[in-house]
Design a protein that fits this description.
Rossmann fold, binds D-glutamic acid, 4-stranded parallel sheet, about 260 residues
Length: about 260
């Protein structure tokens, strides 16, 4: 018998373990839902690949999630959103929810200083980010951070090597601290505490809650929200080494 539409799982994917930060938020806000999270760790990082490569990889993953009977897909990756969200929405009929770097909420904190926006090179080059910059980019300094997501993939969220990397990366922004920092990559959310040590007192803003709110809204609109009495759950999958699934599980249960 076909499963009831609303009890089918929600598929979520990222290039690696970073999208688990979106999953963690989604578990809080939608506890009755079943989630299948797919980390494409074999092909990570996406942020330094071409748009065409990321589009193809994202299509492959979306196809897998659809074959697993998902009722909706969340692209828990800013880079894949930028390269593939539009095309996936043209190809598939199921709801596809995507990320947006939090430039809009950060712009509310802008006064006479600047907002530092951290994202992958792919996201910053992408059309979506450039359009957002036109609207909310006053005072924004965009900083591509190649090499940063790799620390999270290694399970390093507070190591001396990570802090040495961050010290170099952030050196130009220490004399005058930013008014806000945008975490425009889902991996960076797991580095919140580490980044905060380099920018004491500066608010760090990400787009995870907004994305989950949008997911909830979309499911309600399409009558796909799981009933409150359903038992929610998570299946974690990775295209690469099985150790990635253990790391995802650890990150899912982390408070950071
Ligand atoms: N987590 C991804 C994002 O939100 C990208 C990391 C990468 O694969 O470079 O952009």
């Amino acid at each position: 018998m076909a499963k009831m539409e609303s009890t089918r799982p929600i598929g979520m994917f990222d290039s690696g373990v970073g999208g688990v930060s979106v999953l963690r938020q989604a578990r809080k806000m939608l506890p009755a839902e079943q989630f299948i999270f797919y980390g494409d760790t074999l092909h990570a990082p996406y942020g330094t690949k071409t748009r065409e490569e990321v589009l193809q990889l994202s299509r492959n993953v979306a196809e897998k999630l659809i074959n697993m009977d998902c009722k909706a897909i969340v692209i828990a990756c800013n880079t894949a959103t930028s390269a593939a969200a539009q095309t996936l929405r043209q190809i598939y009929t199921l709801p596809i929810i995507a990320m947006e770097p939090a430039l809009k909420p950060a712009s509310l904190l802008h006064r006479d200083g600047y907002v530092l926006s951290l994202a992958t090179p792919g996201t910053i080059k992408g059309e979506k980010y450039q359009q957002l910059l036109q609207k909310y980019g006053e005072g924004v300094v965009s900083l591509p951070c190649p090499g940063m997501m790799e620390f999270v993939e290694q399970g390093e969220t507070d190591s001396p090597a990570l802090h040495a990397f961050l010290t170099d990366l952030f050196a130009p922004y220490q004399e005058k601290l930013p008014e806000a920092i945008v975490l425009g990559c889902t991996h960076y959310v797991f580095l919140k505490n580490a980044i905060a040590k380099h920018f004491p007192g500066v608010p760090l803003i990400d787009g995870n809650e907004g994305t989950v709110r949008q997911l909830k809204h979309m499911l309600m609109e399409k009558d796909l929200l799981a009933g409150e009495n359903e038992e929610g759950g998570v299946t974690l999958l990775s295209s690469g080494d099985p150790g990635a699934v253990q790391l995802m599980d650890k990150l899912l249960n982390s408070k950071e």
